[in-house]
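Response to reviewer comment R2.3. The reviewers asked that we include at least one raw input/output pair. We reproduce the pair for Bifunctional aconitate hydratase 2/2-methylisocitrate dehydratase here without editing.
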Amino acid sequence: MNTYNDYIKEIAERKDQGLHPKPIDGAELLSVIIAQIKDLDNEYREESIKHFIYNTIPGTTSAAGVKAKFLKEIILGESEVKEITPAFAFELLSHMKGGPSIEVLLDLALGDDTAIAKEAGNVLKTQVYLYEADTDRLKEAFKNGNPIAIEIIKSYAQAEFFTKLPEVVEEIKVVTFIAGEGDISTDLLSPGNQAHSRSDRELHGQCMITPKAQEEIKALQAQHPDKSVMLIAEKGTMGVGSSRMSGVNNVALWTGKQASPYIPFVNIAPIVGGTNGISPIFLTTVDVTGGIGLDLQNWVKKLDAEGNVIRNENNEPILEEAYSVATGTVLTINTKTKKLYNGDKELIDISKAFTPQKMEFIKAGGSYAIVFGKKLQTLAAKILEIEAPLVFAPSKEISVEGQGLTAVEKIFNKNAVGIAPGKVLHAGSDVRVEVNIVGSQDTTGLMTAQELESMAATVISPIVDGAYQSGCHTASVWDKKAQANIPKLMKFMNDFGLITARDPKGVYHAMTDVIHKVLNDITIDEWAIIIGGDSHTRMSKGVAFGADSGTVALALATGEASMPIPESVKVTFKGEMKDYMDFRDVVHATQSQMLKKFGGENVFQGRIIEVHIGTLTADQAFTFTDWTAEMKAKASICISEDDTLIESLEIAKGRIQIMINKGMDNEKQVLQGLINKADKRIAEIKSAEKPALTPDANAKYYAEVVIDLDQIIEPMIADPDVNNVDVSKRYTHDTIRPLSFYGGVKKVDLGFIGSCMVHKGDMKILAQMLKNIEEQYGKVEFKAPLVVAPPTYNIVDELKAEGDWEVLQKYSGFEFNDSAPKGAARTEYENMLYLERPGCNLCMGNQEKAAKGDTVMATSTRLFQGRVVEDTEGKKGESLLSSTPVVVLSTILGRTPTLAEYTAAVEGISLTRFAPSHKLLVM
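Raw output as returned:
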């Protein structure tokens, strides 16, 4: 009873916050609730029935197991509840999606009571979340001639779970809501600083955009009860920056429809649009929920009489409005003609949003049901020894005679599942591929766990080479929220089969290493496909895709992912890098030169960047591949030379061995298996049996870009341009400026060296600069705080062994202590060096923040509004992104340095150097 009293108390507390009761996922509480339902005189009986029916999380939660068992009792007549008839009990089981509900339905379907068995069989025909243990039972019963099992298998072979669903409606009426002007980052829809609440969907929903915006959406819904609200990024792209499922969940919560009347706060079918479309990884997340994402193209480049683009004084294209989508505009989406209308007026073709595959996602209420449904149909057809009937839209297959393969095309063809032997596919083809490496990060991991529970998965797919659950996004502050959430997450993922940053048993030291760095190390084959729960899953070995928490769950459960083979843009280099420049400047210059070459068009957006940068090891090349998320690329591939790749793999082996030495390997020896695979790959390269991956000479690219290193003559800075009169130009990563732009006078309030964009070399540069400054000026005096967060503990250990950490300690005023981690985020900074715990720190924005209104100079990737620094009433916070040397000098001076000051400060320091490969050199 105490458990239920605690729940009542929590309900009262949530009511004060305007929230409904928290959904139930625990067996103990639901067992008490069931006992109260059985007690006809219990004062809480009526509300207990409501909690049981409407407020219990399905899937493989312990509560779902208790619920399924009680529903079985009701169906068998062992318990009687007048409010829940056996027929209603079957309906409730049909909405529980899998796991214990499937087990119960199979018990009933294969039981002795013919009438019950038939009804259970009918429900099972609608289910798709079956795993090997479930299908093995059906297969055995089928072999034994069980008539219900035969019926179910035949139904699965015909995919009746899909064909009998209602068709997608022809016309969808929408009313528009402008969520913002310019690119809309997922931070607006699901702020990083609210990451702790993501698994509590209703609570997290309160943080979407602003309370005012939420009220405006509700007002639109009241005015237009027959229409869906479409969220729009005016003059921008919707959902840039992250692969955040919580962002789509929030949009669905406010504007979508409930997935099931018996599953609380799980909404589907959101509709979103953007002038420049939807960010690729965000669009994948929209597909997960059966939603619609529209490329509106409602602002177009203005042309003169000859058809030439008219430009302004900054040489940027002038845009004119093709049609209005102002808030409150009523539009019609026609899924048959695949057009967008305003009344009878046709506005634009939207066929990209309604491909046959996307139509299936919409019909099924999300992409998971299609993925599992296809696997189930294939299995059933195999049992029946028949060809699976063509029910689902055939995958689009493009093969161009005589055309070579890009690097990503080669990887997809190697890992493809279900294509005819010998068939070669090119970009645009729809492919199911096996996934080699999977990463789950800690602020989305709780949602991934929920997704795994909802799809009834209990163990990692055996075809996944390795998977890792990080602790980096909650590393800097071990507060009450982290203490409540993270141990629970680590236990779930460890039990599921992942290598976890924190040991649920407490045997090994907590490793809060940045997830992208760990994934970069455990990727031991450049032919690998990696899926990770973060947009910066951009490895310098293999091809890696940032994904939402659901797609990560799907990859963990099935070992597969489905997507079209993306087009590629080839990036090569010519010229010579200046001695005083850092490789980060090459990265920024790549984006700047690309935009200049293509007249402001970002040819990287939604495509693979195939970067020929083979003379840099994986650690250093990661600086480029990591930044490609900010270039809005779908992913990136690093083309490496044989010797360099071998060196990278040896480094990776050493770091995996350290993880093993710390006790992080599991009983299946996943980490040792990765080392063995790395040894095999090294042997293949050395023997020339299988050299490092390269594209074919006659591969076809969407575009090719040659970056001129000779043009990079001073440090480059990505500027959020917070005061641009054109709001749509603010907070993008496309404003790249030379250091001289700031004239050595722009005040810098705080510096940050950390996040995934730095490596060991950056820490050594920092140490050497501090020594140089002391030699030049007699002391090191900071005029602005400098926060330093190394990416990994390995780096800290190596710096200690090489003497650099001692240098950093000498100049620091704070050093992290794992024995007594910070329990609260820092709110004020002194002008000194802070040596923080390895992890994301300021870059994530969910724990540490700069002071409001600050100008921050950072090595990180994030310059979105409110991420690293929030605004004050009178001053906008801004996060400028630059190289490590620029950040260091900016904090010493308290302002941006001049080019002369910069070159003097880095003299004699070995910066991250790069020279184009002699094999790939562009003449």
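The two ends are 78 Å apart (CA to CA). The first helix runs from residue 2 to 16. Further pairs are available on request from the corresponding author.
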